[in-house]
Amino acid sequence: MFPNMNSNKMFFYFILIFSTLISISSNSWLGCWIGLEINLLSFIPLISSHKNLLHSEAALKYFLIQAIASINFLFSILIKMILMKNFEINYLISIMINSSMLMKMGSAPFHFWFPNIIEGLSWLNCFILMTWQKISPMILLSYYMNNNFLMMIMIINVIIGVLGGINQTSLRKLMAFSSINNLGWMLISLMISENLWLFYLTMYSFLISILCLTFNLLNVYFINQLFIINMNSIIKISLLINFLSLGGLPPFLGFFPKWITINFLILNNFFYISFIFIMMSLIMLFFYIRIIYSSIMFNYLKLKWFTFFLKNKSMLMINFFSMISLLGMIFSTFFYM
Questions:
Q1: Which residue range or ranges hold the NADH:quinone oxidoreductase/Mrp antiporter transmembrane domain (predicted)?
Q2: Residue 231: its H or E element
Q3: Cβ distance 281 to 247 under 8 Å?
Q4: How big, in percent rounded to 5, are the helix, strand and coil portions of the chain?
Q5: Average pLDDT of 189-208?
Q6: For 32-60, how does the pLDDT look when each residue is reduced to its tens digit (9 = 90+)?
Q7: Is the CA virtual torsion 115, 119, 125, 126 positive or negative?
Q8: How many Å apart are CA 13 and CA 210, to the nearest integer?
Q9: Is 147 helix (H, G, I), strand (E, B) or coil?
């Protein structure tokens, strides 16, 4: 999971974590902006590589997009400081600040850069971009929310996440659109409660980490590789469990945060939004099942030299995490009884 780890990379990982903490613990907008900039400057050396041109291209694209979002954010907070008392201007500024944060985390309709950049990254960097890099923009978003605007954005997120993922053959792009879909769920959980958002993000990060770890160990980047590789049946079953859990199928662990979110939505009479979210989750589940069904059922000629083995430690780790994913919700219900 940590290829070519050296002191430089360790330093940039430390700065990446530290900059997020600066951003979320700052008591001024300018401090938040500085934290975001340090975060950007620490992530670029981690994704750029002289060995792979795709990595360098992804780093350049990421820098340009984040710079545009940062300029927009800085411009918004400066106008906010100058024209504080004008209500109409404040409403527009809240939309501008929200838009710049949404652009930073790759939310629809500012998502066009996200799958393209994910396509040029290693699995570890994909994991960081899909989880850790969403923390500071989301917390800053919670400080200055425009509820009507965010409601519309959430619905666009879950719909685009599904429509974009349906035709994908690249696993990284598929995970990117899955991330966009889950971002809609995270935004609605953020509007309900910050604790619920933190719980959802933790569960999502856990599930994504298992999948990214498995794909990294198998060195798999496209769906057809899952069919061709003569994998151990245990790996295929663990992939099935984790994909179904990520899709939010009960009784897997990934259903738990979605269940709580739907419960809150129905209690607060958001029936239409609940319906859209549930229907889009079903479509996401459809194409997860399609991938796994194909990889289990397709039976290629099994050549001896093409057999794939994983180290025992890696297998144990994947199996242990998959068991948590399978049984976590069942055990958690016993603890709450």
A1: 26-283
A2: none
A3: yes
A4: 80, 0, 20
A5: 94
A6: 999 999 999 999 999 987 777 888 899 99
A7: positive
A8: 20
A9: helix
Of 330, 297, 126, the residue nearest 226 (C-alpha): 297
Q: Is residue 241 part of a domain?
A: yes
- Provide the pLDDT confidence category of residue 4 given band limits of 50, 70 and 90: low
> Both tokens of residue 298?
């397709």
Inform me whether the pLDDT recorded for 149 exceeds 90.
Answer: yes
Indicate whether 311 pLDDT > 80: no
Q: Give 230's strand partners.
A: 307
For residue 222, give Cα distances in angstroms to 90, 115, 273, 288: 46, 14, 33, 14
Q: How confident is the model at residue 250 (pLDDT cuts 50, 70, 90)?
A: confident
Q: For the chain, what is the domain count?
A: 1
Q: Is residue 284 a part of any domain in this protein? A: yes
Query: Is the distance from CB of 77 to CB of 54 less than 8 angstroms?
Result: no
Torsion sign, CA atoms 82, 84, 85, 90: positive
Residue 57 one-letter amino acid: E
Q: Is 307 exposed, middle or buried (0-12, 13-18, 19+ CB in 10 A)?
A: exposed
pTM of the model: 0.92
The two most distant CA atoms of the chain are separated, in Å, by 74
Contact 69, 100 (CB under 8 A): yes
Percent over 90 (pLDDT), the chain: 64
What is the per-residue pLDDT for 318?
84
Q: Which domain holds residue 127?
A: 104-336
**DSSP H or E stretch at residue 6:** none
Spatial separation of the C-alpha atoms in residues 30 and 36, rounded to whole Å = 10
Any domain includes 213: yes
Q: Is residue 314 part of a domain?
A: yes
Structure token digits, residue 200: 């959802």
- Distance CA(237)–CA(203), nearest Å, equals 20
| Average predicted confidence (pLDDT) for the chain | 88
| The pLDDT of residue 146 is above 60 | yes
Nearest to 29 by CA among 88, 100, 92, 85: 100
- Give the residue from 118, 130, 132 showing the smallest Cα distance to 57: 118
Residue 118: predicted pLDDT: 94
